[in-house]
Description:
Layout: E1 3-7, H1 13-22, E2 26-30, H2 38-42, E3 46-47, H3 51-56, E4 60-63, H4 68-76, H5 81-84, E5 90-93, H6 99-111, E6 115-118, E7 121-122, H7 124-130, E8 133-138, H8 141-154, E9 155-162, H9 166-195, H10 199-207, H11 214-224, H12 234-251, H13 257-270, H14 281-289
Parallel strand pairs: 1-2, 1-4, 2-3, 4-5, 5-6, 8-9
Antiparallel strand pairs: 7-8
Helix pairs in contact: 1-7, 4-6, 9-11, 9-12, 9-14, 10-11, 12-13
Amino acid sequence: xxxxxFIGLGLMGNPMSKxxxxxxxxxxxxxxxxxxxxxxxxAGAKRASSPKDAASRADVIVTMVADSKDVEAxxxxxxxxxxxxxxxxxxxxxxxxxxxxxxxxxARLKEKGIQMLDAPVSGGVIGATNGTLSIMIGGDKxxxxxxxxxxxxxxxxxxxxxxxxxxxxxxxxxQIVGNGTLAAVCEGMVYAAKAGADPDALLSALGGGAAxxxxxxxxxxxxxxxxxAPGFMIDMAQKDMRLVLESAEDLNVPIFLxxxxxxxxxxxxxxxxxxxxxxxxxxxxxxxxGVEARRAK
Length: 297
């Protein structure tokens, strides 16, 4: 059993923290909106009064918050983890944030004798709930091995990507590929709907060939059924694509498709769909094409 602090109990963090409890760990939870900790506490976690308090009770502290500035605040800000964590404790940031900011935070923690892993995840709410997330880790291999029981309580594929920052780089590459595939699925479905194609025939044909993908298998049926509940919200996908563009700018890497996809997500936000699942992206393309891609009821 390891004592774990868990900071950030949103759509992903809440089931992740509960899986740590199920794994036999002693878990101390904190969320900026206190009521969001209620479900984890009901499952057996203990409530902390601040990130500092959670860190002071734990050997490993996990953060799962929205953006770079939020990670900086809960780790380095007033009442933050750095004020409560003991030397040789480990901070595992499982948020998706800037690789540059990640390296800066890791350096600040190292000055205090605190280890850090950047460990963003893929798999959405389903993966978080089932404990089957893919975890991409930047940091020291020995620290990963030390934390493996904690990581394995939340995910199934654990990949060491290199030093601090590389977990975030690989996650942003994942978002480039995943969101690009999602946009292509939406475009293909809208094209087929405009031409009068049968939805089930389209999914069967694409699923059996080179066009198959996780996005096609998991999100296309939801689109056809009009199910836009979030497994991963458009607001968060747009944040990730912003990080992609910022990092590409730093690296002087041309990014074409991601720039277009960022504008599609921004359009979805302006249409009031920011808190819907990313599969709601199809409604942007439907609106432009003047057609609705749905199964007949």
